[in-house]
Amino acid sequence: SDTFGKSSMNIIEKLLEDPMDTSFDIEPLIHGSMKKKLPELGLAIDGFITPEQAEKLKVIKHHYEDLYSRKADLEQIILSLAEPYSEEINLILTVPSFKNIFSAIAVVSEIGVNMDVFPTAKHACSWAGLTPTNNESAGKKKSVRISRAGCYIKPLLVQCATAVVKSEKHPEIRNRYLKLKKRRGHKRAIIAIARMLLTAIYNILKKKEPYNPELYKKSDVLPVNREITVEQAILLAKSQGFRVMEVTTT
Q: Alpha-carbon distance 235 to 237, whole Å?
């Protein structure tokens, strides 16, 4: 919080002004879960810094403050450039795990706001490098690795997917991740969730409507009638890489 940061900076500035004074209170500097370990922490930081070390720390502190200021200037420029796309950015912020406006801006900067350039959501996912490759020969799939495309947007979506699967606020995503993880492993399940997030963003920008978790909850429910014909079963097996053999009986 801002209060925690200000109190920490005040103590640091006081220490740098008088490095021989170690009588400051460390409680405002630690996380709440560490308060039970105050005696041990006191022993861990027991000591002092020399005036020369304090001067060096002042230079480092000023350098950090300057970098932080330059970062704020760049963020202001980015926000001003993103103003024409505020409607689309606000829609993307309704997607689970997209809480930072700069994450939404990064998505817009990569795929734009006009989804007509992608015929379908699958095309957008393929462009972002989130679709498994189709490497099949003689009915056998040799590789299902994703491509190297989307070197900027793919890491962002993977990071968002990794965060959202840990939360129980979005069961439509977490349940799908847990099911995929059992069969395909963590890494492939995360890629599938990242693909799910990009698909949601595609439809949100296409339809100009916020994220709707009910659509994914409905698709997560198995249909009552799960019967298929023999022909459909054969096509399904072939799509999964199986070679169907005819068995003759005598």
A: 5
Q: Three-state secondary structure along the chain?
A: CHHHHHHHHHHHHHHHHCCCCCCCCCHHHCCHHHHHHHHHHHHHCCCCCCHHHHHHHHHHHHHHHHHHHHHHHHHHHHHHHHHHHHHHHHHHCCCCCCCCHHHHHHHHHHHCCCHHHCCCHHHHHHHCCCCECCEEECCEEEECCECCCCCCHHHHHHHHHHHHCCCCCCHHHHHHHHHHHHHHCHHHHHHHHHHHHHHHHHHHHHHCCCCCHHHHHHHHCCCCCCCCCHHHHHHHHHHCCCCCCCCCCC
Q: How many residues does the structure list for the chain? A: 250
Among 14-18, 97-101, 151-155, the range scoring the smallest mean pLDDT is 14-18
Alpha carbons 211 and 95: distance in angstroms, whole number: 6
Predicted local distance difference test score (pLDDT) of residue 30: 76
Give Cα 194 to chain centroid, integer Å: 8
pLDDT digits (tens, 9 = 90+) for 191-245: 999 999 999 999 999 999 999 888 776 544 455 566 778 888 888 788 777 888 8
pLDDT tens for each residue of 17-49: 766 666 667 777 777 788 888 888 777 777 677
How far, in Å, CA of 118 to CA of 144, rounded? 22
